[in-house]
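Troubleshooting: if your tokenizer reports a length mismatch, compare your output against this known-good record of 407 residues.
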Amino acid sequence: MTVYLRSLETAVPPTVLIQSEARDVFAAQPGLSRLGSRLISTCFDSAAIDTRYTAVSELTTGSRAENPQFFDPGTGQLLSPSTKVRNDIFAVEATKLFIEAAEKAVAASPGIDPGDITHLVTVSCTGFFNPGPDYKIVRALGLNPSVQRYHLGFMGCYAAFPALRAAKSFCDADPEAVVMVVCAELCSLHVRTSNDPDTIMGSALFADGAAAAIISARDFPGQPALMTLDHFETVLTPVGEEAMAWNIGDEGFEMVLGTYVPHIIDDHVVGALEPLLSRDDSLAGLPYRDIQHWAIHPGGRSILDKVQTRLDLSDDQLVPARETLRNYGNMSSATVLFVIRHILDLPAGTGPAAAGDAGAERICSMAFGPGLTVETALFTRLPAPPADQPDPDAALAAALRPASALA
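Known-good structure output:
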């Protein structure tokens, strides 16, 4: 059974962080060692990030909060709120992002009514509350109260893939299922000043954002599909358990992002792709750069550099990941969905063409997280229906023919 992505929309909070300004604030904190100061400059400047978004408006130098909890603009000092304070903010601000992304996904699906949604999968690793984001979305969008709800928590940057895989499984089991997946992360809630290299790296990279998708196997008149969900695989690298982790501390969540992570990915990315690509005979033995699109989670610039070099990908194939990193930073689980959205927005025919594809384009995607876990996925981007096509179902049927030939 073919399962389709019907819509994919993104959302970010309104406050913009300029990377150079954030660097100067972190570098000016009291108690930094000489090495800590150098690390801040190096990490922020080499991150390949220009802007990020945060739900914590007082993190900007222009903020004038009456009782600041994160940043005091009068003294220029970053403050240390408790995990409870941070999580209380998550419950309010993450709810806004979850709902905004979900509403946009529904609005982008004119053939699908909120009452059609049968399953809801929410994802986050940056906070907890209950009734949770799944409940909030049901109430805000007027979904059927009997919708099946699932929440994937604390998995980290790769969690969008288990969510999409679950959505595909629901649709495979029930051809009438319509699944909404919503990822929302407020990573900036957990920034802090420190001399610790992992903490500094997290402060230089992480940001806030959300993405929502609607997935189904059934057809909807007037709602052509964007892409098919073909295959998913999970691989645990033999090393790296201590190199990437996500723990709960008294003053927020604590990121462990060792400098050796890019080297682990460099050593194991080819092996991690093998079980995925073996699922599709048309890709057997094909050079990696001959797969049209690569949606790589931009965990950091050095990770993208290692993947590009190891797989011999072109600069153009890395544009969606690098531009997402440059404009939004690392938003944990939501980030790879921003990369996929970038690819879906590209003009048709971008990238190397596959023989006989008749307009359908393959997307190979991957994300990395604690463990070290590598999640991979294959998708097929479908051609848009002709502007003068009077029957959207006919356009969809035409799109399916090359997709099934490649699957």
